[in-house]
Amino acid sequence: MVQDDLNDFTQGDFERSFESSIVAGRVIIQSNALLEVANEFSDLPPAASIEIKMYPDKAFQLRAETDGSSCEIDVDKSSPALIEYEASTEIASTFQWSLLQHSFQGLHFASESFVRLNAEGYCSIQHMALLGSKRAFIDALLCPDAT
């Protein structure tokens, strides 16, 4: 069961709901570059909120503010780490750091990562790992923070 403040979903319902929704922003990025970005937030408390923001003409940003500190990482559209980037509109969504940490665990094994935000602010993160001559995928779907 997946719960947010507005809906209760089974996992299958949640996945189908995300897949049928309008994706407002998407990025395919080299996983080692996304791991470097994630490491910048590693000292945050688990309950900290991280905002993911995607722009049509810039690229994307991860930002956190806690009592006494803040961290903001911008990834430019011209970055060689970006494989593909598209945002139809400016979109921002906030997630608990502990949830993002779990979804980023696959970065250590992956070569590329695919991050999508839908129009409702839900996030899909998919990591592609090469296991010999085969590809494997690690998926995470995140509900936005209710705060």
Automatic annotation (TrEMBL):
InterPro entries to which the protein is assigned, alphabetical: Rad1_Rec1_Rad17
Keywords: DNA damage, DNA repair, Nucleus
Subcellular location, principal: nucleus
Any one Pfam family match given in the protein's UniProt record, by short name: Rad1
Domain of life: Eukaryota
Key word DNA repair present: yes
GO cellular component annotations of the record: checkpoint clamp complex
A Gene Ontology BP annotation from the UniProt entry: DNA repair
Cell compartments where the protein resides: Nucleus
Family indicated by similarity: Belongs to the rad1 family.
PANTHER family: CELL CYCLE CHECKPOINT PROTEIN RAD1
Protein name per UniProt: Uncharacterized protein
Native source organism of the sequence: Aphanomyces euteiches
